[in-house]
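User: Hey, quick favor. My workstation is busy. Could you predict this chain's structure for me?
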Amino acid sequence: MDIFEKAFGYTEAREAIKQGYYPYFIPMSESEGTEAVFHGHRLIMCGSNNYLGLTTDPSVRRAAIEAVERFGTSCTGSRFLNGTLELHEQLEHELADFVGKEAALVFSTGMQTNLGVLSAIVGRGDVIVMDRDDHASLVDGARLAWGETKRFKHNDMADLERVLSGIAKDKGKLVVVDGLYSMGGDLAPLPEITALCKKHGARLMVDDAHGMGVMGRGRGTAAHFGVTKDVDLIMSTFSKSFASLGGFIAGDDQVIHYIKHHARALIFSASIPAANAAAALAALKIMRDEPQRAERLSAIAERMRGELRGMGFNIGASVSPIIPIIVGDNMKTLLAWRTLFDAGVFVNPILSPAVPQGMELLRTSYMASHTDGQIDRVLTIFGEVGKKLGVIS
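Assistant: No problem, here it is.
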């Protein structure tokens, strides 16, 4: 049997391209934050994770350019060997202070952060307890770890307690949840989760890739709930609010020190270039100095949730700038995506099996830099398309 047979037999994507319903790998010729251009077609961007709009901020751009001029374009090595710059360590110190932890460690991507942390911390005889809606990077990190993985129903505290109660007391336990869930826009109930972790002797890791810069006046979901001290590990990425590329883990100094010397994803990956570190540092400074950006984002999100619900859209349990529009059918979701795209709004279609059958949705997300005029236009288009396709009456 030819191992490539599965590849030669894969035709779904090419068929979707021919029919005009392929929504992935769309090459933009321009992207200026709230707007993007595809083949001359200008779109209002409602599908980005650029929550604070900092990818186009002049100070962030300038910091990246100056870093390239000083350090060049690459570190050409891993953090473990020749790839650590003073910029990396400065960023780690400032991140730890920002999220309220003793230490932080910067990885090359958010995906690698989760792969590296879970595979380093969870060993034979240990157990990872995961929310069923956890991000794919956490799922893959659990696969790499030597321990056992158990799952609990999304945000179901009774089910979490059931799972924790069934684990032997002599086993190491790490509960892992997203802070802000990337599809539903809902939050993990961290006060209840931290209480259960204490009760059952488990540690808690929160992936706050989408919550950082958004919740808790920008300091994340743990800060939003006032439970930072009770969360053992806080993870986030630079590819969203931080307007860069990379990721980090923050926690007690000794735990971070251990991860630093045992995470293969860190040790065997090239470090982020100086430009990425400098951009993240500049974005972090804005988060600290300009909390009004997070407040503006919150106001836009509240307006969108209210008006979309008022039109009759099903937006689930969103409490954030991530607002799903649940359509409930793969083909209808693709048709809605394409109609919105042609009308000038970019969103992301999420199809089963990425979500449960019947929960197919358009993932929309918003930025602090969206203008009121852009939001007005988006709402008008959503209303027109929703009625045209029978998503709303």
